[in-house]
Amino acid sequence: MSQISSSIAETEQIARADAAADAPADAKNVRRAALAGLIGTMLENYDFVIYGTASALIFSKLFFPTISPAAGIIAAFGAYAIGFLARPLGGLFFSHYGEKFGRKWVLVTTLFLMGGATFAIGCLPTYETAGIWAPLLLVLCRFFQGFGAGAEQSGGATLLTETAPLGQRGRLSSLIMVGAAFGTALGAIAWIGVQRLPDDMLMSWGWRAIFWSSILVTIAAFVIRLKLAESPVFTELKKKVDVRNQAPLRVVAKHGKKSVIKVILMNWGVSTQSYTYQVFMISYLINVVGVDTHFVPPVQLAAAIAASFAAFLTGSLSDRFGRRRMTLALTGILVVTPFIVFPGLNTGSPVLITAIIVFGYMVAAQGVTGVHMSFFPEIFGSRYRYAGVTLGREFSSIIGGGIAPLLCASLLAWYGNSWIPVAIYMAVTMLVSFLATYSLPETLDRDLNTPTDAEWGEARPSRAQL
């Protein structure tokens, strides 16, 4: 009898979930949330790409001309790194207000902070006209860029996951990473275009035009986000809890600490491999393999475009097969592939190199994160979801992508240009992410109004299991 009762209960649970999935949703607001998330992360990545490229190409001459060229590049990249250091601080700050005042208004604020800082960089005086104030203002603008970006992807993923109807969370939330890939592609296109200018035009106003162009995306995203409705989950939470008088960071530290640690570990290997493919391997190809520098930008552009499709595909598949199963499959592949990738790069074959970089962008940079965009919000309870996702993602970026290129370059130098230690580092961090994912329950279409974190048996069975 107990087995029969259990089967009946399970059938009723599936029926209720199916009924909820078929319930009408505000299609207009879902579309706005999806477009707002896509454009927001597109702006974020566009800002980072154009700044990173400018740091490599011209900022050492414009803002650090009194030191050697090599030291100037290091100084320019040091200013670039300030943005990564500012991200966790921005995540801490904005997630606090995202839990108290809502997801929508925080996303409007971070949008203006990122877009305004990027536009301001285009207005900065150079060292020739302002002296030491020029690099100081550059660092300040870069800090505000990172500070705003610290809550952007997590906030967009949280709002979109909480807004999307059942059965579509993975597909719609993956648009956050589609936007990130588009931003990377647009940044590459912008620099490919402006580099066609004569050098004097590039150094006088060409580089400024790229930074000014971000204001167009900022305005478009602002109009869309201003019309957004607040997350229905947050609206429901306000009816039950006095959110304005709670301390969300204290709440997540008390009740969601274990889940935050698991998200940090889940994202550690993914962030590590993402920045290894996007940053370190480009340096490896040029300095070790001997690839022509003009070969790299078109490959990166093709890889970014392919990655946008990969993010949407993996997010959509997670709606069918489950978040946990998809993440385990992708991270499992990435544990093994580093030992195949480097011998392939070392062949020097343009076709093989292109295929490897495209694979890295598609699977490591966007494929797994396309699933994470719905997986992470579903892990946390409604009381501190925004804070939990933000803390987990941003702190993992410090121990992952924040140090990955530097550590990979150091390993390469210490071991006489041997790629094996780098591959081991990539594999070990991804193995940690695989095991952390394995320890978590499936979260597919769980009730996001539940105040507690995900538990085993709570999620809706995947369609592949029905």
Automatic annotation (TrEMBL):
Coiled coil: none annotated. Gene3D superfamilies: MFS general substrate transporter like domains (1.20.1250.20). PANTHER family: SHIKIMATE TRANSPORTER. It holds the Pfam family MFS_1. It comes from Azospirillum picis. It comes from the Bacteria. Signal peptide: none annotated. Keywords: Cell membrane, Membrane, Transmembrane, Transmembrane helix, Transport. It is found in: Cell membrane. Residues 33-445 form the Major facilitator superfamily (MFS) profile domain. It is a multi-pass membrane protein. The keyword Transport applies. The chain crosses the membrane at residues 73-94, 106-127, 133-151, 172-193, 205-224, 264-286, 298-315, 327-345, 351-375, 395-416, 422-440. This is MFS family permease.
